[in-house]
Write a structure and sequence with these properties.
By secondary structure, this protein is an alpha+beta fold. The chain has one domain: Aminopeptidase, CATH 3.40.630.70. It is about 40% helix and about 25% strand. It has a seven-stranded mixed sheet with strand order 4-5-6-7-8-3-9, sandwiched between helices. A two-stranded antiparallel ribbon has the order 1-2. Strand 7, helix 5 and strand 8 form a beta-alpha-beta unit. Helix 3 runs antiparallel to helix 4. The N and C termini lie far apart (about 40 Å).
């Protein structure tokens, strides 16, 4: 599959449970990925460690939404090995302009120090990648993202591949069949990523604590 992939076809692929990736930054070819084991981040099971809780409580950073989408994607790709090539970057930015792709940023003053981005369809959010250039900045971004998804009515947060890092934050692994059942249910519902306001740190931690107790 070459760079002829369109934003519309990319949305159809996500709705079918598959997604495109490149093998390297300079590889112009994209490949459809349909992993037999899928990583998801349960929105009622995000784990906040004591150190992350302390980091959020003494928050001298600011969380923002959709203020630097292209820069977040570029920073996610700015590493020795990446699956984000030029076509993926351009498609993601096109989907952002169309209202389907979103970013959540963490700033120290005006400096962008962490962030996460992904695609929203129905009540499903497909988390693509995150970056951090300060300790815990990406974890803070993910905590605010999970809270936002819950408050906006999302029921599925897809992380594509399971990793030890995501598992430490509450991520789990499910089968392809189980994922597609959850995806179908999520696509049948509605959620609005742009609707809720970002909470203050105290409110964020209180919500997370309440959700963990219910879970």
């Amino acid at each position: 599959m070459r760079a002829a992939l369109t934003p519309e076809l990319m949305l159809q692929a996500y709705a079918a449970g598959i997604f495109p990736m490149a093998t390297a930054r300079d590889d112009p070819v994209l490949h459809w990925i349909d992993p037999p084991q899928r990583g998801i981040l349960p929105l009622d099971g995000f784990r906040i460690s004591r150190s992350l809780r302390r980091r959020i409580l003494r928050m001298d950073w600011a969380a923002t939404v959709d203020t630097a989408f292209a820069e977040v994607v570029q920073r996610c790709a700015d590493r020795p090995e990446t699956w984000i090539n030029r076509p993926i970057f351009e498609l993601s930015c096109a989907l952002h302009r169309m209202g389907f792709a979103h970013s959540l940023e963490v700033r120290e003053g005006r400096e962008l120090i962490g962030g996460v981005y992904g695609m929203a369809l129905g009540a499903a959010f497909f988390a693509e990648s995150m970056f951090s250039c300060r300790t815990d900045a990406s974890k803070v971004a993910l905590a605010f993202l999970v809270d936002r998804l819950r408050e906006a009515g999302f029921v599925l947060c897809d992380t594509q591949f399971p990793t030890a890092h995501l598992a430490s934050l509450g991520g789990i692994t499910i089968s392809r069949a189980a994922y597609r059942r959850r995806l179908a249910a999520a696509l049948a519902e509605r959620a609005d990523f742009a609707a809720p306001a970002l909470p203050d740190p105290q409110t964020l931690l209180q919500r997370m604590s309440q959700t963990s107790k219910r879970g």
